[in-house]
Amino acid sequence: MADLLPLLLASGEELTRLYARADAVRREYCGEAVPVRAILEFSNYCANECLYCGLRAENAVPTRYRMSADDILAAVDQIAATGVAGTVVLQAGETPGYSDDEISALLRRIKAAHPALAITLSVGNRPRAVYARWREAGMDRYLLRFETSDPELYARLHPNGSLAERLQCLRDLRAVGVQTGSGFMIGLPGETLPTLARNILLCREFDLDMIGSGPYIPNPDTPLGAKPNAYADDPEMFFRAIAVLRLVNPAAHIPATTAFDAVFPGGRDLVLQRGANVFMPNATPTSLRRDYQLYPGKPNVDESAAQFADRAVARLRAIGRPVAAGPSHSLKRPPPEQE
Ligand code: SAH
């Protein structure tokens, strides 16, 4: 861990070198083409009370919604028709929006209609048996951030769970044989630089297929809302973190996450040149976006769902990067582990 601290503190020429190295490692392991993974926020119901998140159960979100299965299918049809996104990421709060069996049925319908489209699911902690059923139903990948590697900080911010439980879910996902993505927020109030270094190393320990990380953004409608980002005085840290993440996890898919655009104009374009290799545009129907505000300033609330693909292509072209062709990743599944 001590090795990472100087990198996380780099400035001046050292910082320029760090970014150049991260970009070179990304190029060597992932190539120039950028896989596009479209996010569909299909329900904002949530049973949890995470202290930083705008969807927490206690919050008076203007409208709680769940898209109907037909509406989800129509949205996925539109995503597939763009030919730009090789993956749909179905994200929601935790139950009680959709039951586990309803999600299974949904996965089967999507897979039947679009066998070449990879499906990532991101709906929180579940028992291993549920993950296994979802895999059978067609889920290819799962995204479950561990949020922070500090168990005490985790417990303080998540009244409904422990870090140990979250990490067990990640092991369970591995065991049932789906590609596993995780990650953390950068700059949670109460984190220190060694926490950040350990977050990066925990990603390596889990040998993650995908690592999604972005700056923590205070949400005034949450109990944590008055606490600034731990690096509010040094926002360059958000980029250093991604660059170091790339050096430590050279082959992982690292998306340029939405939160980067919320803290810096063009933040996602920058981070794609400092270690990130995946773009995850929002393909949620426009009328619902305002109700999926994890944090304030989430970009593109007025963008039409039909525009996301053209905009993604244009943004990538502007930084000289092509979109990865077709279904961008092998859908070959790792075999389930023996127990
Ligand atoms: N219910 C799913 C998805 C959660 S929302 C699950 O439990 O995994 C997706 C991610 O948004 C979270 O994992 C968290 O890292 C991030 N997030 C939530 N609130 C945020 C905030 N205020 N600032 C930055 N990121 C936030």
Tell me about this structure.
This protein has 339 residues and is of the alpha/beta class. The chain has one domain (4-322): Aldolase class I (TIM Barrel), CATH 3.20.20.70. Helices cover 40% and strands 11% of the residues. The protein contains 13 helices and ten strands. The protein has a six-stranded parallel sheet. The chain has a two-stranded parallel ribbon with strand order 6-8.
- Average pLDDT, rounded to a whole number, is 93
Order the strands across the largest sheet as they lie in space.
Answer: 1-2-3-4-5-7
Reported CATH architecture:
Alpha-Beta Barrel
The percentage of residues in β strands lies in 5-15%
User: What is the N-to-C succession of helices and strands?
Assistant: HHEHEHEHEHHEEHEEHEHHEHH
Keywords:
two-stranded parallel ribbon, 6-stranded parallel beta sheet, binds S-adenosyl-L-homocysteine, 10 strands, 40% helix, 13 helices, alpha/beta
Question: Would you summarize the structure shown here?
Answer:
This protein is α/β, with parallel strands linked by helices. It contains 13 helices and ten strands.
Secondary structure elements and pairings:
Elements (H helix, E strand, L loop, with lengths): L3 H5 L3 H19 L5 E8 L25 H14 L2 E8 L7 H14 L4 E5 L5 H10 L3 E3 L7 H7 L5 H14 L2 E4 L2 E2 L6 H13 L4 E2 L2 E2 L20 H13 L6 E2 L1 H6 L3 H5 L6 E2 L6 H4 L18 H11 L21
Parallel strand pairs: 1-2, 2-3, 3-4, 4-5, 5-7, 6-8, 9-10
Helix pairs in contact: 2-9, 3-4, 4-5, 5-7, 8-9
The structure holds S-adenosyl-L-homocysteine.
The site of S-adenosyl-L-homocysteine has 19 residues, from loops.
